[in-house]
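ingest -> fold -> write
write: protein_1
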Amino acid sequence: MTVLSAYRRSAHALIGAALALAATASIPAGATETIKVVLDQAAITRLPEHVATIVIGNPLIADVTVQPGGVLIVTGKGYGTTNLIALDRAGKVLTERNIEVVGPEGNVVVVYRGVNRESYSCAPECERRITLGDTPEYFNSTLTQAGDRAARAQGQGAAPGQR
């Protein structure tokens, strides 16, 4: 082997190592996948094997339910971004993901009456919708009506005047 061919092999190995390092350096440290979910809706994702503990940074933004087979259901509870960390029994981080909860898209009409806000789902007719940010009186009235209706449907409530 000549000195020149040894030098070329070393240069090729050095260039290959530099390219590999550059490829991994372009991935930000701690980069995580983002799970995007609409407020009051659910998204499904999978967990890695051997998850023992799940931590949600802010449970007011998102909630999770673990199903058999490593299926994770993420429900949007409030607007914003939080994170999910999955740990094994030894406390080792198996995965970390961001959860972004966004507002509903399409068919939602927001009505402002001065500073008071009301939301409606319009598909095809407009009906009251409970949305974070609505005026408390509108929000509570709509929530009470929906709760009363659900209770009656389950046979747990009496009609007004029969209470």
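write: protein_2
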Amino acid sequence: MLLHRSIYRWALPMLVLLCTHAVKTPAQTSAGPVLTQLSNAFSGGQTVNNVVLQGNATWQAGSLQDSGPVTLTASSSGTTQVQIALSALGVRTESESGQGSAQSCTWSKADGVSHEVSSTNCWKALLWFLPALSLQSSSMSASLGIADMGTGTIGSGTYRHLQSQLVFSDTPQSITSQVMQFSTTDLGLDPVSLLPSVLTYTLYPDSGSSTPIAIEIDYSNYTAVSGVQIPFTIQRYVNGSLQLAITLSSAQIN
């Protein structure tokens, strides 16, 4: 998700990008050992192709609060969808398809009308609700560089720090540089389990304003489902305030 892509355009900032692509670059090579450890912690080193996560979501902005069932689906090929059926605001959906420079993101609200997400908010390196799915070496695409930044502070904690950026090989250098800037994500792995604990990145209003919007997503309550560790509690903060809280009740893995 999701405040992603159109945080201020919807009453429901539920668009937080669903990007799941990665690349084999020199930067990624330097992160090889920790990526192997992450893969082993996430799924015992086995490839996860598809996930369907279901539960309940609560969205809030100031005094406005709404809730309802949520379904999050994703594949290792990069197709993702988040759908939340809010009791007052109705169904909200966000989707992503394609890879590399052909990647596209859309969102719709209760009227079902599809809207495109601005490129700068669609360019994000990791899947926001399950970043480990994006970092499987067996299914990485050719669009993402990964660097192991060692131990560092992300948000309010100290973690093993992985930084990711999309790197397009089929666009002019000026566009490639812009994509790298806007797609950067910082992932903090728990230093003991090496499972994702926090993901941070920056979005910008679709109005074209240059005012950055800080996003932080926290993962907890990991539960093994078919041998895969899934965070059953996912919380997204916008500029430091809790905006979306997801509590999962089930997960399907294949």
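write: annotation protein_2
Residues 1-29 have pLDDT under 50 and may be disordered.
The chain has five helices and 13 strands.
pipeline exit 0
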